[in-house]
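Bench log, entry 3. Co-assembly request; chain sequences pasted below exactly as received.
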Amino acid sequence: MILYDKSLNMKFHDYGIMLPIADNRARRVLEHLGIDETSVYTLDTVRAIYGFPQGITEEDIGRVHSARHTESLFRDEQSLKEALLACYELVDEDGRLNRYEPKHAKKPLTDIFKTILLQNFGSYSACRLALRGGNTHFNAKNFCFYLGGGNHHARYNEGSGFCLMNDSIIAARKLQAEGSASLIWIIDVDAHKGDGCAELVNILRKQGDLSAERGDDILTLSVHMAGGWPLDIEHLKRSLRENSMNYAPFAPSDLDIPIAEGEEELYLPLLSEGLLKLERLSSKRADIAIVIDGDDPYIKDELPSASLLKLSLEQMLQRDRHIFDFLQDRGIPSAWFMAGGYGDNAWEPVAYFLKSIMRF
Ligand SMILES: [Zn+2]
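Structure output for the full assembly:
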């Protein structure tokens, strides 16, 4: 099934945030599949099925992020605004505005938080739909593709890389808290390392909130560019300056698979090996896998910071089909988040993958 909701469109320019993110990606995927917007799951459908009146709450966020970060989002307008300015990098190191034009904004910056909360609710809802099963469009069991989500850079203490809150870990911890799942896999194939997820899982384990012995755990696999943001040298220097061993970009995932520039032909064999290792690391079959299915490894992606990895459309399709078949063969439910993907062609890999599993 597909989860998509028009209300989740971020409309950055309405808030004066001048990011080059095409907001028609989800719609173009649906057009390519020939699926009408009225036949997909929306947040209202989810509310009707489950009756979640509150969506994602402060408690859900506090289960994952530090008290300092969580409180900054709910305390007052000013603290929320500061968290947003930092997360979207709207002020540079010299204190000047960066790709932020408040005078062109139609709405106050802090209004975007409502949409971010809804997006996080979408990620959690996609997991619930995957666990519920049933499928109208695809030859798949317990599968939900969410045309949104994947904010994998959000860290314990702060938002980062346009990700204010870590929707994947928030969803995973909420599922565990309500008893819907205990062992959860995060399979992250966005071009950029899933640094926020890695840091959060390490901290949650240290705090005893996750425990392999108890059985409620989150295992992280990240396949990503070996260099470039967030693993670049500037970050490393800052990390050393701050003397922070926990600095998110360098926090290890349970399985990290860095792909060096020009080694695209190794991508699929290494991914395949990584999935088998993930299975061996697990004490039992995962209750659900969250797939952070970024499209920015695609050769036609237009984000400069994703240019060190260049997979062809065929390789992108093989990547997704491999993960899909691996999970389906083992009967593991999966919620897929669209994550990164920039420019006019960012819709293509998602659309081609979903078309390949469509039921006709
Ligand atoms: Zn990315």
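The chain has a mean pLDDT of 93. The domain at 2-356 is CATH 3.40.800.20 (Arginase; Chain A).
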